[in-house]
Amino acid sequence: MYELIILKILIQRPAHGYLIAKIINKILGPFAKMSNGRLYPLLSKLEQDGLIIAYEEATDESEGGRHVRSYKITEAGGQRFHELMMDTTSNPGEYQKLFLQKVSAFDYLKPTERLRLIDHYLNYCQSHLLYLTTVTEDLGQNRAKSSDGPTYPDRIINTMQHLAEQWQLELNWAKSLHQRELAQS
Predict the structure, then answer these.
(1) Tell me, which fold does domain 2-88 have in CATH?
(2) Which of 70, 96, 130, 175 is 20 to 30 A from 146, alpha carbon to alpha carbon?
């Protein structure tokens, strides 16, 4: 996911490491942070792979007028960005978070590519919803049938229903993305 986020930042404009970290940390939210110990090795790897180029840049006088190491995306980096954007098979457990990153970079895709990703996400949401609904029903039936031995507490079923409601919201959002995309086509 971090590779996609970094390339997404750099496809918009060159940036120095501190700015990249600041943007990533805003994306991650209040509790997760990207450390320099994780960011700079990843930037080095992207540079070694020819996906980005590092260069020295002087900052404004307001920032102390010092030199900083900045990065910009290469043509190969742009191709890798597109590849990551269109990938729907890697990291299925993290795909919900990945999809959010992809939606914010939809302007870099063709309308047909955006629709393909949205359709995939619709199926992804429906799969989660179907699974949770089926498991919740099974748990309820097993609880009703079982007179002896361990039973599933109402809290587990309630939690599963809550997760299903969250996936229903995701599905509704994906449907709205799909409708908006069709309206713009």
Answers:
(1) Arc Repressor Mutant, subunit A (1.10.10)
(2) 130
